[in-house]
Amino acid sequence: MEENKIIRTIGVLTSGGDAPGMNAAIRAVVRSGIYNGFKVKGIRKGYVGLLNGEIEDMTARSVSDIINRGGTILQTGRSKELMTIEGQQKAVNMAHVFGLDALVILGGDGSFRGAHDLSKLGMPFIGVPCTIDNDIDSTEYTIGFDTCCNTVQDAIDKIRDTAYSHERCSVVEVMGRNAGHIALNVSVACGAEAVILPEKPFDFNTDIIKPIIEGRNRGKQHYIIILAEGIGGAVEIAKRIEEMTGISTRATILGYIQRGGSPTPRDRVMASLMGTKATQLLKEGKYNRLVVRRNNQITDVSVEEGMAMKKSLDEYMYEVNNILSL
Predict the structure, then answer these.
(1) Which of these, 101, 25, 100, lies nearest to 66 by C-alpha position?
(2) Which residues are catalytic?
(3) In the predicted model, is pLDDT for residue 259 greater than 50?
(4) What is the rounded CA–CA span in Å between residue 21 and residue 64?
(5) 185-221: b or e for each residue (b if 16 or more CB lie within 10 Å)?
(6) What is the mean pLDDT of residues 280-288?
(7) What is the mean pLDDT of the chain?
(8) Which of the chain's termini has less CB crowding within 10 Å, N or C?
(9) CA distances in angstroms from 79 to 33, 45, 76, 126, 242, listed in the order given
(10) How many of the other CB atoms lie within 10 Å of CB of 166?
């Protein structure tokens, strides 16, 4: 699409895994879009809905009373068809049928890669990072991460109560297939004895068994081990711990409870700021960019730059976790 081409109608969709704060972002896109003179249409069920033409007009009133709701009122999904050039062309054609001049995509890396493919066929977009994993390379923060960490912290605090009551070790598996940001943050917040992350090689005896035994020798009577789902095997790890230490050990896989719940104030605010930034970029004639948070500021980067970046763990946080778990 040519720079400075007039955009009159934008479509907003949520793609991939749902994240608390997506509704707040939808609300921000719709209301700021209307404020900036755009017509706004909602696309249901992500790219699947775009391919099927599940598209409807949205007004300021249609996003009333959703800022506090988890999930996404537009629903979400994943589309294998969009991975083909035929599917991509079909999606662009359907967008033209409904008069869409640009898209605002709320999702993660996979969603942005799909949008980037559509942009090559003439459908510009702005990406807003929404994923509980906080694993989008180009931004310091993604919508949904804070709420997820609060949910996990609450669950682990409850697990600790029963672990203490029974002098038990609990192995808790949290989300994070390829990224350990959730696991590391809640490990620090909950005072876990050990955290196992996809980004860090680990030795079962040194990194799990040794801290438990050393803790027992100092008089500890309960233990929390946190691992990211990318490592997996919580049940097997719990069994091995019990066999080697004699300590009663249970595994808890938190699963999809981590995606739900009313978003925290931080996620509501970040979603509002990022969603508004998306429509402001379109108003300024900037396309194919990702809204990001850098140095405590909401800004933007090109999709090519953003997708080329590599996000790493907070090494200082990892060091602190190891120090404080002694």
Answers:
(1) 25
(2) 133
(3) yes
(4) 14
(5) bbbbebebbbbbbbbeeeeeeebbbebbbebbeeebe
(6) 96
(7) 94
(8) C
(9) 26, 10, 10, 19, 42
(10) 12
